[in-house]
Amino acid sequence: MVILNLGRNEGQGMRLGKYELGKTLGEGNFGKVKLARDTHSGKLFAVKILDKSKIIDLNNTDQIKREIFTLKLLKHPNVVRLYEVLASKTKIYMVLEYVNGGELFDKIASKGKLKEAVGRKIFQQLIDCVSFCHNKGVFHRDLKLENVLVDAKGNIKITDFNLSALPQHFRADGLLHTTCGSPNYVAPEILANKGYDGATSDIWSCGVILYVILTGYLPFDDRNLAVLYQKILKGEVQIPRWLSPGSQNIIKRMLDVNLKTRITMAMIKEDEWFKEGYSPANPEDEEESVYIDEDFSIHDVSLEADQGSPRSPTLINAFQLISMSSSLDLSGLFEQEVRIWDHGSLLSLGRTYIYYVLTLFPYVLTSKIFTTS
């Protein structure tokens, strides 16, 4: 099996198979993301380390499963690439593409709004990528600045697909019914709790992102969630007059509460403002030198001191290994689960992420904005 080594000398990091783990890049509800170096090639990666006990406690096995499956499916220059999945009895390790420019959120929060030409390029890549995902049957459902990374060249990479919807999540009416997403970016039809189209709701979130990168602030914001949701449901947004007419028009058409008149992906790509300098990505140009096997095999990783002797790898199916814990059942995806993720005001609460389990907030349930069907 592959050995996980704990370095004891100064400057020596923890080893995960051929990867040497370094500094922590970020932390979340389920674990950490660490910088890693392939000791064979020297290439840098980001390793997402998930604590299985926390996944069990929060009953989020379905989200981990769908993120792995979705990233395996999507091969696009603007989607963070998943290279490999490793696991031990207590941890899951997702070996991901390392994006060295950080979050788009940090870029806007520290430097303010972007110049229109720069913002348009980012928006073009965003639409190109999200449209590709939709064509593959994947609907992100949590598009926001924090889930858009920027590399050193200014190109974006979309990440965090754990709330994404796949074809099997649609009900008989052809709609999705799970209330999820981040409050400032969520579409009004999701709040209305009558079912929604994943593509249409993603377009709304992309409109919010475009608004923020061109203005430096959120179109819908309030510390009181109930007030915030009412603003979104009514479509109460003030578009600054100092924005160019073309950008004002496309934002207005994306943040349209009327589903019949909201702009579509095809219409966005035909918009004159959008098309200026547009160079579509070609997923076929992506390198396939590293990939995930079709049977989703992963390595069983054991935590041991450095023995100095190699061992033969044992291949185990990812979900079989994760399911070694009897309480961690990955047999299905639970579309009925209701969850929202709030990051608060872009400039006030910043990087504080809070999961709101709706049953703990009677005032939300009382408002009948969020209910389960």
From TrEMBL:
SMART domains: S_TKc. It holds the Pfam family Pkinase. Its EC number is 2.7.11.1. InterPro entries: Kinase-like_dom_sf (IPR011009), NAF/FISL_domain (IPR018451), NAF_dom (IPR004041), Prot_kinase_dom (IPR000719), Protein_kinase_ATP_BS (IPR017441), Ser/Thr_kinase_AS (IPR008271). Gene3D superfamilies: Transferase(Phosphotransferase) domain 1 (1.10.510.10). It catalyses: L-seryl-[protein] + ATP = O-phospho-L-seryl-[protein] + ADP + H(+); L-threonyl-[protein] + ATP = O-phospho-L-threonyl-[protein] + ADP + H(+). It is an enzyme of class 2 (transferase). ATP binds at residue 48. Belongs to the protein kinase superfamily. CAMK Ser/Thr protein kinase family. SNF1 subfamily. This is non-specific serine/threonine protein kinase.
